[in-house]
Structures are given as structure tokens and as C-alpha cells.
């Protein structure tokens, strides 16, 4: 079956302490305009237009973020929001979406807080993944590794499946730096970015095979749920009773039908302020500025201000963020520690 | 004559762009609590107590800063404020003060925006200077040079005058770095910090000899002035007609009776944020913090915030100042450029 229609399933969760103080519990990363004019959530929907073969989206989010989702949902797009009464990780979220779709529907699970510079490459990879999914594979995007990152899991490439992709030989947990360097040099490893394609029915079958209790309870939560306009509310008691597991751990690492498609699409999970600087358009000195600012003798400096003017002199590889009553100044290398600051940890 | 009573003459002027954004046109450096609990102006008065042989102070200030002067004047100290209707530099300011004192009074001219760590050393130098002043010398404090500073004028030491001080062999303009290094290595040069002692009558005689038009017009401004409580207002027209010249240029560099007393007293003109960091008490990592802040892996960092919390990671030799709608982040080396920022220049 060629070119099946693709049902985007957009996951909106997370607390986003790593981009504090811009990202806060009350307004996390997906809903912020971090790269370009739109928010990451808006960009995620915009990457999946009807014209490129995508069906209306299903968005899975928590009640706390429903207002952001609905405020940023483009007019006329249609689709459904599944409102989780509590957080139960990705296996549960994807199971709910699968149960709201026909068995033969091909789902494309998309995190809502990533940046993808090349939308056409994303769409091409999505269609390759969808073709494999229609054949019964559970497909991960194998994101081209461009640096020895220690913050991601990796996929080891196995045998080819036709011209579209490969079997996954192994799911590899986050490596240390030495192993990450080996993976990069090897060339046979890709980042696991949490983007997946499968038929709804295939996913539910595999979930039932490997995590029958999650599958059964998700089915109960949907059967006992109700719609309210474009919102779908699962049964709160049944949903709360679902085990909290990631889809990787519950399904992808266990299935015999794990596949991957290569995806070189300018991807970033914007995992910290340093990653955001790398994803941003920059001036000739490597600086990226949002908000009122004056820079003198600065290189590779990121400035984000929600109001006050930032005047910077002589800085190199520094991030400055002004948000309300918080000011963050960190080296790019220190950006990975932001989530552990008092302000980020005790919001 | 031994131990003459010393009349402090405190000069409160300047716009203070170099400590922007904390220092602003409306509230310049003398009136800010930059080192310790009090302001620099308060500390200047506190260094000249009656118990150490000082008379009540005369403060010379502009109308724009009169409110700050009066608000920060300690209760019960007494003294007079000379209110300048416009700025006419130090020769005019000192002439007004001299004309408000008896001819034989020994004046000690003190800038109000310097930090002096060792008040006892200051008082000892002041009494040495006062003894020379009582003998008819015009005495500069020769501040011990501890670094090859290019931002100050220098005094070259001449022959000794008894045990108290030396003749000034030469007033040297701000040197370049190479000459400043030579001065430091030579040991015979001291910084000219703008602290002077002389008899009122001696000063007026020398002013009349070298700048007769300034002397005459200052005399006219005082003769036509009036007191209002502790304030003295010179005649505004006569004052405005005075030539604007520094006391160094008008008098000290021309007199044949220029003397200096050595002063090693932990002096700083707090000429920029880097100098302020050097003058501040610091923690074991060299950091000095005022306001809410969290520091992680930081060394030699100065943080000043008037409210927002500042979180800093991985920084070294950096200054962060948050004041109202302005945030300054500069390297210590870049601190000398602060006055040229848009924000500082266009207040």
C-alpha cells in the first residue's frame, strides 16, 4: 500500500525545567515561540498539512495545558484533543490515541517540543515510515547523529527493508561520551527522537502482547470516556490506574517488528539553552537576540528578554535570559545545569 | 602650627555613567550604597568626624542633587550646603567654599564618590596635609599607586618637606599603559585622587594669581548670594559667568607651592564596575553579591540586583547588574566601556 494517509498524534507534556526561566511549569516549552515566529506546538502541527498527505491531528495533553493547546490550535484545522486527567507517560498517551482511530489508520507520533528545520525532509521520512507502518512495522525515526550526544538513546541500524528503511538491530540507552563518539564514528547509529509510525491496530496488538495490563486499562479508559466538542476525556479512574511507562520501554524495545527510517532534517530537541542557540538564526558574530538589547564585542551570545533591555559587553559563549522576576546568565557549557537551579526546581 | 582644625569641603557632582545602570543621572554614584551599608557620600562625611579634628562640613552640590544630599546628611552634624545653580567644575566649587570660610581655615577638599577602606590612614594623611597647608602649601594626597592605572593623573614626588610630605616635582596627565608601568616600577609616582588641603586664603591668593577672572567672579557670586537655613545660594548670574576649569588645571599645576602627602589608605575611585568588584568584600570564590542570587561554578563575579533573582552558572570575571528596566552583563575587562552604551549615554 503506497502513500497511506498519516494521522499525526502530537504529544504535549513535560514540565520543561531545562529552558527555565522562559519555560515554566505553567507554560512549558511546546507553547513558547523559541525558534521563528510560531511556537514549537504550532510548528509541529504546521509540519503535517493536509496538502502533504496528513489527516487531522490528535493532540494528547494534560488538563493543565489544555488552554494553551486550544489557544494555539490553528483555526479550521479540525482534529481532536485527548485530555489526560493525570500524567501516565507515553505508552498510555499513544494507546489512547490509537484507540480513537480506526485499526488500519497509520499514526505518526510527534513530540510537540522539538525543532525541525527541514519540513520537507520530515515529510519525506514520514511517508517512508508510513509505508513501512502500513506493512506492519513499528517504525522509529532514526535521526542522523551529528554530534556525540549523551542525552539521547540511539538506534543501531539492522538489515534494510526494501529501499525505505531498516530493521532496528538494537535500542541503545543514553551512552557515555566515549561510546557516543564510537557511535558517531561507526555511522550505523542514529538518535531516537521519539517520533514513531505504526498502524493503530499493530500498536495495540503489540501493547497487548508486551504490556497487557496497560492495553486493557487504556481500552477501559477510552470505553468509559466522553467527548465534549473537540475534546475527548478518558475515564479518569481507569486512566489513573494505567502503569506509567515510556513507549520505548513498553513496546518498541520488545517488539520483533521494530524498524527505522533515516531522517536528516535539522532536528533538535532544544534540550537546553545551548541547543536553542544552535537552532536559532544568528548574526555574523554568532549572536542570537530576542528582545531589546545592545551587544558590544560579543560572540556566540544568546539573549532573550521579555522586556528589560539587556546590554552585553565582551561576552563569548554566554546565554542571558530575562523573564519576569528571574534573570539567568550561564555559559553555554553550563546550560545543562539550568534544570537544577533553585528557581527551575522549585517553581 | 600643629593640628589645625580641618574643614571638610565635600564635592558632589558628576553624572556617573560608568556605573550605569545602577548609577543614573537622577541618582549618581555618591548617593548609592556601593560598598558597605552606607552611600559613598555618607561614608565621606563619616570619615571626617569632630572627634578626629574635623570641623563641620561644607558640601558643594548642584540643585539636581540637593534632595539626595539633605536626605543623606546625618542628623546633628551641622554644616553648610552650597547649592550651585549650574555646573562650573572644581575650581569654581572650591572657590565658593573658600570664600565661605575664614582666611586661615584649613580646607580639605574631598570628592564624594570615592571609597577609602582605611579611614584611620585617611585621617592621618589629612592631618599631615593640614599641617603643610597651615604653612602655606597647596597639598595633594599622593595616593599609593598599586597598579599601572591609565585612568588617573600622577604626581611625581620631589624634595621632602620635613617629615610630613614632599614637594610635587610634576603633575603628569593620564599616561598610556607603558608609561603607567614605568611609573609603578619607578616608585616615585603617586595617583592624584583629587583630594587637596590648603588654607582658604592661600587658595584664593593662588587662584587670583593664576585665574584672576575666576577668583573675581566667584567673589561676586558669594557676595551676591544668600543663605536659606543650612543652604547657601550663590548669585546665579555671577556663578554662571565663571569659567569652567578643574582645580588641577587652574591652580595646582601652576602654583610654586604644590606639595603632596603620601596616602596608602585602600583608596578606589570606583571608576567602573570592575573597580567596584575589587573594592567589595568577596566570598571564597571571589564573588560579590547584592540582591537575590544563586551562583553555580562562578568565580570573581559581581552581581547587583534591585529585585529580580539572578541565577548564574559557570561564569568567571563577569559583572551582572539588574536595575529597573535595564540588565547589564559585561566582562570585567569590558566594564570600562559601560559609559559608552546606548543606555548610559542616552539617559
Task: Please give the CATH class of the largest domain in chain A.
Answer: Alpha Beta
Terminus-to-terminus distance of chain A: 49 Å
Mean of all residue-level pLDDT scores of chain A: 95
- Total of domains of chain A: 2
Strand order of the largest sheet of chain A: 6-9-7-8-12
CATH superfamily of the largest domain in chain A: Spore Coat Polysaccharide Biosynthesis Protein SpsA, Chain A
User: How many beta-strand runs of chain A?
Assistant: 19
Biggest interface and residues each: A-B, 34 and 34 residues
| Global Rg of chain A | 20 Å
Name its key features.
homodimer, 347 residues, alpha/beta, Spore Coat Polysaccharide Biosynthesis Protein SpsA, Chain A, 2 domains, 5-stranded mixed beta barrel, 4-stranded mixed β-sheet, 31% strand, globular
Describe what this molecule looks like in 3D.
The structure is a homodimer of 347-residue chains. Chain A has 347 residues and is α/β, with parallel strands linked by helices. Chain A has 2 domains: 6-268, Spore Coat Polysaccharide Biosynthesis Protein SpsA, Chain A; 276-345, no CATH class. The first copy, chain A, has helices spanning 40-46, 66-72, 89-99, 119-134, 177-186, 200-210, 212-223, 236-240, 247-252, 273-279, 342-345; strands at 6-12, 58-62, 80-84, 106-111, 115-116, 138-144, 153-161, 165-172, 189-199, 226-228, 231-233, 258-263, 267-268, 288-290, 293-296, 299-305, 309-313, 316-323, 326-331. The model of chain A has no long low-confidence stretch (mean pLDDT 95). The interface between A and B is medium-sized, with 34 and 34 residues.
Amino acid at each position: 500500500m503506497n502513500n497511506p494517509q498519516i494521522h499525526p498524534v502530537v504529544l504535549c507534556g513535560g514540565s520543561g525545567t531545562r529552558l527555565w526561566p522562559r519555560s515554566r511549569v505553567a507554560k512549558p516549552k511546546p507553547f513558547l515561540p523559541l525558534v521563528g515566529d510560531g511556537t514549537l506546538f504550532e510548528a509541529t502541527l504546521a509540519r503535517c498539512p493536509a496538502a502533504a498527505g496528513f489527516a487531522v491531528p490528535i493532540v494528547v495533553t494534560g488538563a493543565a495545558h489544555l488552554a494553551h493547546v486550544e489557544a494555539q490550535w490553528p483555526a479550521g484545522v479540525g482534529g481532536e484533543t485527548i485530555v489526560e486527567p493525570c500524567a501516565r507517560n507515553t505508552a498510555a498517551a499513544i494507546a489512547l490515541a490509537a484507540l480513537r482511530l480506526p485499526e488500519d489508520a497509520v499514526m505518526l507520533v510527534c513530540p510537540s517540543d522539538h525543532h525541525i528545520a527541514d519540513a520537507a525532509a520530515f515529510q519525506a521520512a514520514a511517508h517512508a515510515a508510513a509505508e513501512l507502518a502500513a506493512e506492519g512495522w513499528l517504525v522509529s525515526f532514526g535521526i542522523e547523529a551529528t554530534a556525540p550526544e549523551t542525552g539521547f538513546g540511539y538506534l543501531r541500524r539492522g538489515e534494510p527493508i526494501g529501499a525505505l528503511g531498516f530493521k532496528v538491530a538494537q535500542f541503545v540507552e543514553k551512552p557515555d561520551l566515549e561510546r557516543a563518539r564510537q557511535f558517531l564514528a561507526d555511522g550505523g547509529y542514529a538518535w531516537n527522537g521519539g517520533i514513531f509510525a505504526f498502524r493503530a491496530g499493530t500498536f495495540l496488538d503489540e501493547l497487548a502482547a508486551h504490556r497487557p495490563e496497560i492495553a486493557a486499562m487504556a481500552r477501559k479508559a477510552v470505553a468509559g470516556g466522553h467527548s465534549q466538542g473537540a475534546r475527548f476525556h478518558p475515564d479518569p479512574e481507569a486512566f489513573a490506574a494505567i502503569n506509567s511507562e515510556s513507549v520505548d520501554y513498553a513496546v518498541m524495545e520488545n517488539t520483533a517488528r521494530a524498524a527505522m527510517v533515516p531522517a536528516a532534517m535539522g532536528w533538535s530537541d532544544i534540550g537546553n539553552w545551548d541547543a536553542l542557540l544552535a537552532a536559532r538564526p544568528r548574526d555574523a558574530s554568532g549572536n542570537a537576540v530576542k528582545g531589546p538589547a545592545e551587544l558590544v564585542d560579543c560572540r556566540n551570545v544568546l539573549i532573550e528578554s521579555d522586556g528589560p533591555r539587556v546590554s552585553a559587553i565582551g561576552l563569548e559563549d554566554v546565554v542571558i535570559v530575562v523573564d519576569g522576576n528571574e534573570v539567568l546568565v550561564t555559559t553555554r557549557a553550563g546550560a545543562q545545569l539550568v534544570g537544577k537551579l533553585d528557581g527551575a526546581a522549585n517553581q
